[in-house]
Design a protein that fits this description.
about 75% helix, two-stranded parallel ribbon, about 170 residues, Protein Binding, DinI Protein, Chain A, mainly alpha
Length: about 170
């Protein structure tokens, strides 16, 4: 009877262990910082962003200069000239706002450039994570850098280095 009970307990324990789900963590910031192509893409985005911001700032400065000039000359201008100057200032401000939206808007040039440069790298990382998940039997992989409130996680379940190795870094 004891042997049957022991055998039953072993079978139950092994089946519970067999159905245990495996979890892992990755740190995307750590992974990105170890990929030279990602760093180069970020540098390129920063350079383009600074260039475009300088263009927007130049137009904004022109609009401010026009306004300052208008305020200084306002006393000497006729009503018609005032309206013309005001329209010119508003047009320059609108041009600056439109350029800002074109470059930095939600569907702007910077967004498109970021997508074109970073999406292939992100897809490659995703595929490596997916392959590791299938190979090792992970049912859930969390990104500790994504803002999920992970209070503590054992370093033994962090597979960031394995992802980098899978990518060849």
């Amino acid at each position: 009877m004891k042997k049957i009970m022991l055998l039953t307990a072993c079978i139950i324990c092994s089946s519970i262990i067999g159905f245990a789900q495996k979890y892992a963590l990755i740190d995307m910031e750590y992974i990105f910082s170890r990929i030279p192509a990602y760093e180069m893409a970020n540098d390129q985005l920063n350079q383009v962003s600074k260039k475009w911001q300088a263009e927007v700032d130049a137009l904004t400065k022109q609009a401010k200069d026009l306004f300052t000039q208008y305020q200084a000359e306002m006393v000497y201008l006729s009503d018609e000239m005032k309206k013309t100057k005001e329209k010119e200032i508003l047009a320059k401000e609108k041009e600056a706002a439109d350029l800002n939206r074109k470059y930095f808007g939600s569907e702007g040039e910077l967004y498109k450039k970021r997508e074109s440069l970073l999406s292939p790298i992100q897809d490659e990382i995703y595929n490596a994570v997916k392959e590791l998940s299938e190979e090792k039997g992970y049912v859930l992989i969390l990104d500790r850098a994504s803002g999920v409130n992970i209070v503590y996680a054992s370093p033994s379940i962090d597979i960031s280095d394995a992802v980098l190795k899978k990518l060849g870094y």
